[in-house]
Design goal:
17% of the residues lie in helices and 40% in strands. It is α/β, with parallel strands linked by helices. It has a nine-stranded mixed sheet, sandwiched between helices. A four-stranded antiparallel sheet has the order 8-12-10-11, with no helix packed on it. Helix 3 links the parallel strand 5 and strand 6. The mean pLDDT is 92.
Length: 201
Amino acid sequence: MERRGICYIICAGERSPLDIAKGEDDLVIAADGGAGYLQEVGMVPDVALGDFDSYGRVPDAREVVRLDPIKDVTDTYAAAELALERGYSKIDIRCALGGRLSHTLANIQTLAMLSERGADARITGNGTVITVVKGEATFGEGGYLSLFPLDGDAVAEITGCKYSGTFRFTHEDSLGVSNEPCRGARVKMLSGRLLAIAEER
């Protein structure tokens, strides 16, 4: 059954504002050490999931999902899979950037997996929002918009940006870095998928 709310996954990366106005249909999952940050801001997660190696103990939560520390996926990836299993198609991953670079990259791969499985997912950080564009997406005015191919080469038509036109993005160059969206900025995919990073100035 598809849920109408948003699933928030709180990770153990850099601290970013947890400005979550939790609705009745929303779900908050603490991925391992993310439970510590939730505790600091006085929030109790609906689900605490992980092997709890980075947290050090089993946290307080309405539900606890214990993972074997010998596993093939990160706690964040497992939390994303749980969100999908419970019917959530809107997923907002917080505190998933900074810290160990390996985990930041793994979190971006988790975002790519969610997009591939049809979810409307994002990573929200300090002045940064990361999404995957596989059809068409619009972006607000101001800041920077960087685009990177996810599955080999990608071709997109960009309008409403400082640098507009049809571009081919590859893994061998840095063409998509630091474009500047103006009013009505739009990215329309012609082939492939793009990782879109919107950053404040």
